[in-house]
Amino acid sequence: MATVSALKQDARQRGAARATVSQLTMYDWVALDKRGKRMKGEMPAKNASLVKAELRRQGMNPQTVRERAKPLFGASGSSVSARDVAIFSRQIATMMASGVPMVQAFEIIADGQKNVRFKNMLVDVKQTIEGGAALHEALGKYPVQFDELYRNLVHAGESAGVLDTVLDTVATYKERMEAIKSKIKKALFYPVMVLAVALLVSMILLLFVVPVFETTFRDAGAELPAPTQFVISASQFMQHNWYIVIGLIVGSIVAVVMAKKRSQKFAHFMDRVMLKLPVMGNILRQSAIARFARTLGVTFRAGVPLVEAMEAVAGATGSIVYGDAIRQMRDDVAVGHQLQLAMRQTGLFPNMVVQMTAIGEESGALDNMLFKVAEFYEEEVSNQVDTLSTLLEPMIMVILGVLVGGMVISLYLPIFKLAGTV
User: Fold this and answer.
1) pLDDT per residue over 161-199, tens digit each?
2) Which of 174, 201, 260, 353 has its CA 20 to 30 A from that of 221?
3) In the chain, which residues fall in CATH 1.20.81.30?
């Protein structure tokens, strides 16, 4: 009973220590060093007195300590991106592999952070570790930036006593995942932006340019060709109902986004449609397989049990269809089926992936085989994105020609007709 009571008391003390870590405030300070030289800097702390105490501890005489003014809109500092977390992962892995103590490593990385929000977060995590928490527990205070998969990998590394090795693996994993996401965004951004600009130019022509030509044609009293009459009718409709058109476009986008968030069936349907698109669907499919293989390889190498890892892997694929299939694979593996057999049943994995997984299971080198699969499909995604860019350029030129060029030509048709009759 005494032991149980002591454990409970220790747990309460650790919880209290973590609870005392509040949101830190950034202070700008000016101080004189031992030579009387004026020094300036910044420091996150709970209050100004702690800043002054820390400066005195470092042998400086504080002159002014002021709380940094908060911006008019939103919290200070930009949001913490996945790229920030990837860079942090590489930094902490390198320092720990070099023998730098964890708390000191967090302090060094936090001091070098330009993102104030991320800097405060790292200081908070450091103080939580100093209060007696494990690293995965401290990171658990920020589940958005450090997801379940990240924390599970860190936990596995702590349990096995190979945290520096696991952190290096996690850093590589985050960098590879960000590279794939960047490729997918690149594939989607270019055509979407070009089409958006084409749509905007068309609306400007219909609202401001076509009405000028319409007045000229009306004064001339000439009979208008069918294409010109169509463009003028579209312009008249836009002038009287532009707010309805814009409302329909914005409303449709918002409706699709909201429906995808609230309806699992609709989200599943949209994901299936995306996977069936020519070229783009192949990129998304190969990206999902690459993420699956690399994530499962990392978790398996870190010592996370296969069944336990599958749930985190399902959320890392970036595809609802593949996520559902991996959860089904998890259930199959949990009742004793081999991973390669469970993969084959889904019908979503190419035969090469299934065969390499089978070889990995039989040889006891599943993680190595999964990494080879990931590298192959990551390279395929890169090549497919380059191919997509090449294919889209002529298609986009055709669309621009039809939308903008066709509209301009239709406006000049009556002028050509009048010139021919003179």
Assistant:
1) 788 888 888 888 888 888 877 877 777 777 778 778 878
2) 201
3) 82-175, 176-421
The pLDDT tens digits of the residues spanning 319-367 come to 889 988 998 999 998 898 899 999 999 888 999 999 999 999 888 888 8
Rounded distance between C-alpha atoms, residue 126 and residue 189, angstroms: 38
Kind and range of the H or E run holding 66: strand 61-67
For the record, the structure tokens of 207 come out as: 């609202």
- 34 DSSP assignment: T
| Cβ pair 228, 196 in contact under 8 A | no
Which pLDDT belongs to residue 24?
66
Widest CA span in the chain: 110
CATH superfamily of 176-421: Type II secretion system (T2SS), domain F (1.20.81.30)
Within 10 Å of residue 75's Cβ, how many Cβ atoms?
12
Neighbours of 322 (CB within 10 A): 25
Q: Are 180 and 287 in contact (CB under 8 A)?
A: yes
Phi, psi angles (nearest 5°) of residue 106 = -60, -40
In the predicted model, residues of the chain with pLDDT beneath 70 are 1-24, 69-78, 220-222, 417-422
Contact between 174 and 89 under an 8 Å Cβ cutoff? The reply is: yes
Amino acid at 274: M
| 32: three-class secondary structure by DSSP | strand
Instruction: Report helix, strand or coil for 131.
Output: coil
Q: Residue by residue, what is the 3-state secondary structure of 351-370? A: HHHHHHHHHHHHHCCHHHHH
As a whole number of angstroms, the distance between CA 45 and CA 51 comes to 6
**Which pLDDT does position 18 carry in this prediction?**
42
Whole-model pTM: value is 0.65
Per CATH, which fold does 82-175 belong to? Receptor-associated Protein (1.20.81)
